[in-house]
Amino acid sequence: MLLQRILWLSATAVSAQPSDRPRLNFNFPSNSEPQRFTIKVDESFLNNTIHKVRSYRPTHGLSSTWDIEGPPAKSLTDVAEYWGTQYDWNNVQKKMNDDFDHYATTVSGGDTNATPLLLLHGWPSTNLEWSKVIKPLSENSEQPFHIVAPDLPGFGFSPEPQHPGLGLREMGSAFDALMHQLGYEKYGIATTNLGWVTGRWMTIDVRDSILGHMCDFFLAEATTEDQA
After folding, report:
1. pTM to 2 decimals?
2. Model confidence over 114-128: pLDDT tens digits?
3. pLDDT, tens digit, for every residue of 70-89?
4. How many CB atoms sit inside 10 A of residue 91's CB?
5. Residue 198, Cα to own-chain centre: how many angstroms?
6. For residues 159 and 24, is the Cβ–Cβ distance under 8 A?
7. Quick one: angle between helices 73-85 and 43-54, nearest 10?
8. Which domains does the chain have, with CATH numbers?
């Protein structure tokens, strides 16, 4: 079976016991063995979220430039309006369950000729960002890939860290350990946005594991000419 998705249950340097972890707002297997599960977010959490979105009150900003005060109030108001009146999570949840098999830990790939590829999403996002490329990549007869597409800790269905110290650089070491746990000694990385930061550190910290790093994002400081 081709590996289609991995949801990372624990991403802390010191693993928290189940009793230490806050109650999640979705069903998630708690054992350490590979286990398939169906995504189902608690209805009470959904209702509470809708209530908060519909009660959103925009703040008064002094600038409409994103890099000064963040998104303009008008943009956030439009987003809140969309989430509160048009967005249907249950339809999205159904599509995620219909389109992919979800596992709480690991699933081995079946094609030994496939190239392992770690996909790291951006902010604010989840591994669903890669949903349209997973099948084309994993089912390509000329160059198949074993796709590993985790949620970054604290995003999507990957619970947030329970201890300090898991930054974007540290995530890279943890993801490298995950790939080795899956049996992939060498693998490629494809990243976007926030995931690029982790991927960049991985090419430095665990470079012997990396076949290559493809990204569509790069940070560059503005020059004096740019600012003129």
Report:
1. 0.56
2. 889 999 999 888 888
3. 777 888 889 899 999 999 99
4. 9
5. 12
6. yes
7. 140
8. 18-23+106-215 (3.40.50.1820), 43-97 (no CATH)
